[in-house]
Amino acid sequence: MRSLKPIPCQKKRKLKISQLHRVYTVLLKNFGHQKWWPGDTPFEVIIGAILTQNTAWANVEKAILNLKKARKLSFEALRRIPAKKLAQWIRPSGYFNVKADRLKAFMDFLDRECQGDLSKLKQKTMPVLREKLLAVKGVGPETADSILLYALGKRSFVIDAYTKRIFLRHGLAKDHDTYERWREIFMRALPENLDLYNDFHAQIVRTGKDYCRKVPRCEGCPLQRFF
Ligand code: SF4
Q1: In terms of CB atoms within 10 Å, which of 37, 79, 84, 115 comes out highest?
Q2: Fold (CATH) for 42-151
Q3: Residue 5 per-residue DSSP state
Q4: CA 134 / ligand 1 centre spacing (Å)
């Protein structure tokens, strides 16, 4: 992410890592529980996590609706259909040829690991699963953590562009810090609570969409009190 310009309301006070849990409670009080992730089944959550790369969620919803209408939103169906055909159904999500290959690679992974049975996959520990997910073609850390947290119920914090934008502006980490460093900051600071991980990321996305845009709207933002 490029360096962010100082913003008008920004004074010198930096957010401390020890305040992160407090940040969550403030957001929760303001926005209410976000009840993530949008998706009817863990399998649908996985498909959404892969399709949402580099596109808006509204486009993912259209692609998923196409798959549902064609009765192709299942492990068996996606495993059977050729990538070229799959690409046509997921066209609204953008980069559809690349994403069709990624979905096919993920189906191969599911076949190898659990024959498509996600309850079997869940039996593995988070660190083992994370390593395996990161080895799948097209699955980066943000996608892997989204799948772990929202589809498989594993406690792994998701870092996205909103997280970096908001907390860089609050001085929590540095521009050049790696994804793994960001994740470590959150995972060390927060209590070991799956629902907290789940909803905190959702609250961050909500804050990023409503207030902490490219040009921030600090007036009225619940996190303004942390400056
Ligand atoms: S918009 Fe909110 S989160 Fe973003 S810098 Fe301003 S107060 Fe912080």
Answers
A1: 37
A2: Endonuclease III; domain 1 (1.10.340)
A3: P
A4: 32
